[in-house]
Amino acid sequence: MDSKKGDLLALASIPLIMTLGNSMLIPILPEIARKLKVSSFQVSMLITVYAIVAIILIPIAGYLSDKFGRKMVIIPSLIITGLGGALCGVAPWFGQGISVYWIILAGRFLQGIGAAGAFPIVIPLVGDMFENEEDVSKSLGLIETSNTFGKVLSPILGAALGAWLWYLPFLTIPALCLISLLLVIFLVKSPKRKEKAPSLRSFLKDVKGVLKEKGRWLYAIFAIGGICMFLLFGVLFYLSEQLETKHHLKGVMKGLVLAIPLAALCLASYITGKKIGKNKVLMKWASVIGMVLSTGSLFGISMFNNVYFVISCLIICGAGVGIVLPCTDTLITEGIEKEQRGTITSLYSSMRFIGVSLGPPIVSLLIQTTHMTMFIVIAVVSLAAVILILLAIRPSAEPEDDPPLRRHAIHQP
Questions:
Q1: Can you give the residue range of the structural domain that contains 288?
Q2: pLDDT in tens, 317-346
Q3: Considering the entire predicted model, what is its pTM?
Q4: How far apart are CA 184 and CA 178, in angstroms?
Q5: Taking the first listed entry, what is the main subcellular location of this protein, grouped into a coarse class (predicted)?
Q6: Cα-Cα-Cα-Cα dihedral of 17, 324, 342, 12, to 10°?
């Protein structure tokens, strides 16, 4: 693993930049709406368009990475992301109002295309780089930590840059993408492909076979990844709205408060990635503990509406999600053969993007009910993830006794 520190540094920059490119906008969306004279719904589309495009294209990017190589997909994806950010950033120089809005929306569309072939391809590439499962889990823990650190940094950085110049967050993306691009080009060494890539028909047949054989636990992990992102972005949307409307916190101060539960998530991801090693039984029960923490904290919030109590519970919820993500990343990466790994993990990444997309709008509808109703509904969704882990994920404590096709997989009944 020590010999691949440069590779991991370069790859860890990708989720950091992708997260910043999207989440930095959240604290400045009201300012963008005022500057461009557009509605709240129109400005929310700057987030939604990015996510929808990524959801649709992630599986295609996964297949292309399996066929042509991970690095061959990541490099053009970073370039497209940078170009999309540049288009958004220069749009205010060429007009005002609704015309600028449509240019920015087009730039976000491009960013969504780039995002589909960036972070989702990093996960299978890390799996390709190492033969030792313990190295894989530690490395994926670092990648997930970088992703969550981006979430911690984004509300603070976005608010600070937006306070200086409202479109400055857009302009930072090309510079960050250029840094990551250079790191990937010069530091990442793609593992050599042992066999020629199969035809599309043969490949789809193999993927169908994988889903048929291992579908029970794979679909469970897909759902758990989506639920984790739904919980995270849903409660952050709620907290952001409450801080501004009830407690009159705006700008950098609001960003700092939003960063607190995300910092707990980041720390939990880092520690979990280092501790789980190649022990799949530990991964399952760590995931159970993480989701139980999240579920319990959300039920707790439903009982009390004191802001300090809410933030304390969200810290626990964030830590719980942070425990789960490195475990699910490793289980799905190590449970799939390299030939289909890019496509299967891309389906997992799509589910995470779906969770990101659904969290804020569903919570915005639930806010119109009572505080207790809203958080009981969210807690029940979290409880569903606990049940999925317990019933569908059944790892073998002795993988060396597995049949060859399941040596790195997870047992099903």
A1: 2-184+209-401
A2: 999 999 999 999 888 877 777 766 777 877
A3: 0.76
A4: 10
A5: membrane
A6: 30
